[in-house]
Amino acid sequence: MFDTQSKPYKAWQKYGAAVEAAKPRGLVVVSAHWENEDGSEHVKVNTDTTNPLVYDFYNFPKQYYEQTFTSHGDPKMVVDIQEALKEAGVEVEPVKRGLDHGVWVPFKVAFGGKTDIPIVQVSLPGDGSPVSSAKLGKALSSLRDKGYGIMGTGQAVHNLRDLFSGRPAPYTAPFMSAITSALSSPKPLEATLTLFRHPMYRQAHPTPEHLLPLAVAVAATQPEDRLEELFAGTAEDGKLGWGMWFWKPQE
Question: What is an example of a Pfam family matching this protein (predicted)?
Answer without folding.
Answer: LigB
